[in-house]
């Protein structure tokens, strides 16, 4: 398991379109996923200890952001050949077990991860209502262990995006396991 940090926010970068199958059996697109005030695109997976350690907080933040017009979508781009825990069937199980309040979709070809420049799980991309990138940072100060009372970096940034259309200029990169690319 390789731990990586993605680059920081490229403000104004336009969200790339996608059309991916969700664990709910439906197709999800950029247009169907977006909220009136923005969209949080999360690259996550099932096996990553970084994702596992923040899963509950991702769910909490996604639910609260919905109340502010920010929708969320989770994309799983790992090759499940070496990580069976990331299979589509296991994605269904995890989404059901944790009652994901957002579409959980499979980037089977890994093209969307490449289009977005995603490098790790979790990797967060926060877009405004015009689908311009305004946040690419961490969820909070936690890594694999929760930090009590950690400031909610992603949540606070996305609230700012919902209100002003702009993300904070100071951002701290996320950290996580490398995306498992196909050979």
UniProtKB/TrEMBL annotation:
Entry's Gene Ontology molecular function annotations: antioxidant activity; oxidoreductase activity
Residue ranges of every copy of the Thioredoxin domain listed in the record: 9-160
SUPFAM superfamilies: Thioredoxin-like
Taxonomy, superkingdom: Bacteria
Alphabetized CDD domains for the sequence: PRX_like1
Pfam families: AhpC-TSA
Name used for this protein in its record: Thioredoxin domain-containing protein
């Amino acid at each position: 398991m390789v731990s990586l940090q993605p680059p920081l926010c490229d403000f104004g970068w336009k969200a790339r379109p996608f059309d991916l199958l969700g664990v709910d059996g439906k197709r999800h697109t950029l247009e169907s996923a977006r909220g009136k005030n923005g969209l949080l695109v999360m690259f996550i997976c099932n096996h990553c200890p970084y994702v596992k350690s923040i899963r509950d907080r991702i769910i909490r933040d996604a639910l609260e952001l919905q109340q502010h017009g920010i929708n969320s979508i989770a994309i799983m781009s790992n090759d499940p050949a070496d990580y069976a825990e990331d299979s589509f069937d296991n994605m269904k199980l995890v989404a059901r077990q944790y009652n994901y309040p957002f579409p959980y979709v499979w980037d089977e070809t890994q093209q969307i991860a490449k289009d977005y420049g995603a490098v790790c799980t979790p990797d967060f991309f926060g877009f405004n209502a015009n689908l311009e990138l305004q946040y690419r940072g961490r969820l909070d100060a936690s890594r694999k262990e929760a930090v009590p009372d950690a400031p909610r970096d992603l949540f606070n940034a996305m609230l700012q995006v919902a209100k002003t259309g702009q993300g904070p200029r100071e951002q701290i990169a996320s950290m996580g396991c490398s995306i498992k690319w196909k050979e």
